[in-house]
Amino acid sequence: MRKSLLLVILGLLGACQLAPEHIRPSLPTQSQYPADYSVAEVDAQTASQLDWHEVFVDQRLQVLVETALVNNRDMQVAVLRIDEARAAYRIQNADRLPTVSGTASAQRSRTSIATSSTSAGVSESYTARLTVPAFELDFWGRVHNLSAAALRNYLATVEAAQAFQRSLARDVALTYLATLEAEERIALAERTVQARSDQLRIARRRLDAGVTSELEFRQAETLLTQAEAELAGLRLTRAQNENLLAVLVGGPIGDDLPMPQSLANQVGASALSAGLPSNLLESRPDIRAAEESLIAARANIGAARAAFFPSIQLTGNSGYASTDLDSLLGTDGRAWSFGPSINLPIFNFGRRRASLDVAKAREHIAVAQYEQSIQTAFREVADALAGKRYLAAQVAAQERGVVAQRRLAELAHKRYSEGVVRYLEVLDAERSLFAAEQALLQVRRIEAGNHIALYIALGGSPPKIQ
Fold first, then answer.
1. What is the structure's pLDDT at 10?
2. What are the structural domains of the chain?
3. pTM
């Protein structure tokens, strides 16, 4: 009889599944990246095959990234969210098993003569009992679906932490590159300010000697003040980037870090293979997190549907009761009780229907968020592939432009010293050269940042958190 009852209970526990089957929505993007961006390269590797040191080639940057993954406060919160979600799942999953509690009591009392028809006496009673409070037979899968939803929320939290880890590594790299760009542009501006200060002193001597007019002196002075203003702005930018980098890293940046590499050497030589957009479904943790949230939402629908059906609960206890402690555990003192109870929903003013509608709405939201995460990933990869194709050409063209502009400035100075042109032509040539050199440093920083962004967008991973 007991064996048959156990088989019936187990059958009831796994009889029904009211949650919708999880089917991935169709890919809301093109099946391939734009052909203009996807350039096949020899010996190209996928992001998962490529070690992160081959992309974050600057050793100083590597140390900063590793430090940020440990000390960044947002990263610490993301890791603690995992512990929180894991504990919540364990709590929910515990409801699938019955709770057993044990109690023991002893009572001693005396009856007075005034209240008793017989003589006064002392009575004793002892009990020891194991109790199973109301345990729900999960006939409709309500408890199972709630546990499954908690599990999927936990897994989504894990994936979200990994997505943040990659985002943090990218932000540290981009901020570091911006700081490096500011350093190199400051060095260029300082050299320019020094050169123009020398030119202004020469212009002052020529003015005092009556060789040139005050107009040319003021033009040289203007050229110097422009460089000084640019230098002050760059120093402000550097300070702001250093402050942001300190926040991302999680504390002050030490002085014992490796020496930085120049912007020109920040792009690694390893070639990245973009693959297909469908590969992002497995390689991107943010997409995996969105899918886990979608599965959780569908499990909650199953739990909401189960609320429309009767719930069956079992209660029971087994133990001993006796007036004599020495004979408490004897067969005469044994007692037990067992019984089911059924809760049948009849009328609750639409509460259950509204709860189901909420669960369905949240599923639709989860689908939209899942598709949006795919579209965002597709755009990030496509943008980075476009940058990979065109930024190298832009850097090369800018380098040729700097060479040409430098030669133009040299010719302008020579022609001015020979009295062929006015100083205004020298002014324009110097201004254009300075702007071209600054633009070259800027586009080199953009190219290096794009290379790292492509690696992260394709699912590349920085070092794992221990």
1. 46
2. 10-96+138-309+353-457 (1.20.1600.10), 101-136+314-344 (2.20.200.10)
3. 0.83
